[in-house]
Give the backbone structure.
Amino acid sequence: MDDTPLADLFEPADRARWLGLVEGVLKGADFEKRLVSRTSDGLRIEPLYGAAEPAAQPVRQPGPWRIAQRVDHPDGAAANAQALTDLEGGADALVLAFAGAPGARGYGLTATRVEDLDAVLKGVMLPLIALRLDAGAKGLEAAALVKALAARRGEDLSAYDLDLAIDPVGSLAATGSLGAVWSDVAPRLAATVSDLEAAGFRGRAFMADGRPYHEAGAGEAAELAAVLATAVTYLRALEAAGHDLATARERIGVLLAADADEFVTVSKFRAMRRLWARIEQACGLDPKPLRLHAETAWRMMARRDPFVNILRTGMAAAAAGMGGADAVAVLPYTQALGLPDAFARRVGRNSQIVLIEESHLARVSDPAAGAGGFETLTAQLAEAAWEAFQTIEAEGGIVASLSLGKLQRRIELTREARAKAVATRREPLTGASEFPNLAEKPVTVLDVAPAPAGPTSNFGSGGSAVACDALPSHRLAEPYEALRDASDAYLAKTGRRPAVFLANLGPVAAFNARSTFAANAFAAGGIETLSNEGFTDAEALAAAFAASGAALACICSTDAIYAEHAVAAAEALVRAGAGTIYLAGRPADLVEPLKAAGVHAFLHVGCDLVALLNGALRSAMHTPAPQPAR
């Protein structure tokens, strides 16, 4: 009996052999265009990687990451109920989001006195959990409240696992104001740390927060660079005031946004730890574990088909955890619609419990080690981020770069490129630009009014102040949501949605692919499609269009049928009163004849769908529906 191992019966697999097989499939198509992708920073991502030699990688301390839950209800008693429910349900960290902070998303705690904060945290044994503040411009006041709370409870601050998350640079980036010049702010920050340490504080006073840059559209390398420059700015402020660098670096934590791109998110978090170790070494310090927080990305959240957000945030949480985050906060799937209810909060919490307790993702300290793709992209991101960090430093540091508008301009270029990718669906958004559901049922959120806006900045007062152009906060789905909102308003006013008649030519087998493509595309703008079994006669097609009551028409079929019938069909639709005519596809040889016949635009892969849908909505809402011939 031949017991040769099965693998020995096959020719060894190597890249050269794989490339030969790929060339046969591509049939002359460009390998770079078809199979190689790039991050928003332009970093190359190959379709296939081999195993890699694991690089030295700083990791989080052994054990699972912490499950952090936001406490953001404006009512103190309700906020307390949120905190207790989350901790009893499996969370072991809380994020106190204060009203007025960008991260509070329009809601947040209104606690201004130590008694208020004590009520919010009633029954919460703070020495047993981790606590992170998210107070924006009120960072110093919130930190003082926590210090006073410890004294009120007779507990030592050293017993708390605290991230006070004071971040004046992040506040400057998000709001455009600092309240004072940096030379006045920095000593105040250092004095705050000294006062806290005198009270026993041993946690992280400052947070280098990547969210303002991520929400403004920055790529991963740019976000890492901004965070690194912010952390170095805080290190310098502490050192200038006489703090020992070995201790000062322990007063700084980092928060990165985690999105649903697993490949990039894992690599970004791994790169952050490498970059921080490089800073420590440059300071003459032996690297120590960085406190690295994650929050699922605001910019990927969608108001339409919000259940897809569960998938997005679940993937983001998994990627952040595998990338080495110490604590992960998952935005509830209804966060973009209002203040999430208990069910949405529970879903976010339980997704992490499943990842840790059932999927065991935290059992391995660095799951990406030795994986060619992750190792390569981690190294690329670290180098690109370091170069971008050096650019910020050459501009005088991040405060100067923001003040001069230089960092904002670089982020703006990336944001515009990403917006174009979203508009053309090269970056698809499930539920918004892809597979939209016009019949979706509304989800519930709490009936709570948004909290009043907080101060623009409270890190200084009087005299001159640092100011800059605030970074915008955008969600990727907003252009499509605006279209859907317009459609909903039209439905409420008229009792029907804007509609487009699918002018299907030929048999179902011929038009089905493009009519399905067109139906999904128009639905992304809230436009209902009226379909049929197809036509071979242009006059019958025109009569059916007139009877449909639609103001728009879209011709759908194959290129071969277009060559014979599309021009006649367009001319008949014009005679029947079609306000605007589209054609699914873009047959190169017929573009001009079709335009002459009345086709206004071509709906095809790669077209600017947002622009097309905006025009379609305007036409549908303002063009009288044709009347059937009598």
Summary: The chain has a mean pLDDT of 94. Residues 372-394 form the longest helix (23 residues). The first strand starts at residue 37 and ends at 38. The CA atoms of residues 226 and 389 lie 7 Å apart.
